Amino acid sequence: MKSAISTIVNCKIHLNHSPLFRRSIFHPTKPISRPPPCLIRTTTSLTKNNSSFAPTIMASSFKPEHARAPPALPLPAPPLTKFKIGLCQLSVTADKERNIAHARKAIEEAVEKGAKLVLLPEIWNSPYSNDSFPVYAEDIDAGYEASPSTAMLSEVSRLLKITIVGGSIPERCGDRLYNTCCIFDADGKLKAKHRKIHLFDIDIPGKITFMESKTLTAGDTPTIVDTDVGRIGIGICYDIRFQELAMIYAARGAHLICYPGAFNMTTGPLHWELLQRARAADSQLYVATCSPARDEEGSYVAWGHSTLVGPFGEVLATTEHAEDLIIAEIDYSLIDLRRTNLPLSKQWRGDLYRLVDVQRLNSL
User: Fold this and answer.
1) Strand segments (E) across the chain
2) Annotated catalytic residue: which of 84, 138, 196, 290?
């Protein structure tokens, strides 16, 4: 009995010093939405001689199904479990026709080496500069004559029977410019188009200043697409810094997120691999990135280091800064394994936080 009384007294002392208790004193009109931990119902376990007392706090309901709105979709069965991906880290010049022909050759080489999915870099048909974006921009929706870059991607995907995540190119739509990624399936059809959501506007004095918003308009739609090699979420470069986008893709059942990107010599060494591994580990899926090769003479110098990361946050394949082609295997069975090892989806604290996918919520 003495032990039980002592427990209650200790609980009251804890309550008196808790933020919830102090708030109730200074703001008595504000209701406490949830009882403090010491008021959670407890069960007691007593020994035969009643000499010891072992209180056990009942587990609270984490409500993982409430942590995302709408609730997360189950991971769909992919069309194939294992396949090879090709990451084409390309040199980019001021010659647009050369860039298009060069990208085609790299895609063909990747397919010769067994790739079923090919990823290209960010802004692979144009120099990466605000001066170049309006000059090299293509009207993708107007058809192939107005967009020779996407015409090539459509043709080669159809001829080689592969899926292409076409990096990104400057897109003209009316009086606006976008940084846009096009995804083509094995019959050459444009499956989806992702416009970079988060524009690269940074200012690090003495290092780098770049404002994409001077010429480009931000996209406003997350992009996830079902392909012959699984469900893929798309982000472009700076999009990788915002984990909520990756979490939305995971909640929509993505197997893989592709980020064509061109990190620079200041943020690249610090953050490029870190962010890729973080997005993969957070969402427990594959992350693939592809950068332009480094051009020390260019107005914008890319970090390079195209990479494939697995669902445990492990680097599976990467390269240095020069032009290169990575061929690496993706095995989707590892996603289920890692989610069994670390059952994060069952541990989401739906009682404390929630991620809202506005687009899906509005479609219900």
Assistant:
1) 42-46, 53-57, 68-69, 82-89, 115-119, 163-165, 169-173, 176-184, 190-195, 201-204, 208-211, 223-227, 230-234, 256-260, 286-290, 307-309, 315-318, 324-331, 355-356
2) 196
Helix and strand totals (H; E) in the chain: 9, 19
Report yes or no: 154 and 168 within 8 Å, Cβ to Cβ: no
Of residues 84, 96, 116, 122, which has the active-site annotation? Answer: 122
Among candidate residues 262, 140, 256, 149, the one with its CA nearest the CA of residue 192:
140
Residue 258 among the catalytic residues: no
* 181 has catalytic annotation: no
- The helix/strand/coil state of 309 is strand
> If you ran DSSP here, which 8-state letter would residue 138 be given?
B
Report whether 69 contacts 356 (CB < 8 A). yes
309: nearest Cα among 262, 264, 246: 246
Residue with tokens 């069975």: 333
Catalytic status, residue 108: no
Taking only the tens of pLDDT, the chain with its 364 residues reads 444 434 333 333 333 443 433 333 334 444 434 444 433 333 333 444 444 444 444 455 688 989 999 999 999 999 999 999 999 999 999 999 999 999 999 999 999 999 999 999 999 999 999 999 999 999 999 988 899 999 999 999 999 999 999 999 999 999 999 999 999 999 999 999 999 999 999 999 999 999 999 999 999 999 999 999 999 999 999 999 999 999 999 999 999 999 999 999 999 999 999 999 999 999 999 999 999 999 999 999 999 999 999 999 999 999 999 999 999 999 999 999 999 999 999 999 999 999 999 999 998 8
Exposed e or buried b for every residue in 151-160, given b needs 16+ CB within 10 A?
bbbbebbeeb
Q: Is 9 exposed, middle or buried (0-12, 13-18, 19+ CB in 10 A)?
A: exposed
Choosing from 88, 181, 182, 237, the catalytic residue is: 237
Distance of alpha carbon 165 from alpha carbon 181, whole angstroms: 7
CB 279 within 8 A of CB 241: no
